[in-house]
Design brief:
mainly alpha, about 80 residues
Amino acid sequence: MKDYREILAKQLEEILKKQEEITINDNLANICRELDSFTVKIKDCLENNQDLPEFDKKRIQELNDEYNINIDRYKKLKFIN
């Protein structure tokens, strides 16, 4: 029979992984919401044959980079290649 300390340590490890997963999911949700906020602006630019302002393009790139970082964190957490 396993020692209660081993069982508690395993449960703590599982809880900490779940907390990390929650943090990653929250980050991804926030990133996606902010990216979604650019949809109308991008559609307007396309309809008016205009380029998106540089600061918007930069922010979209930053968000995409953050998204990819969080996806990588999730894969490492779940041991996915």
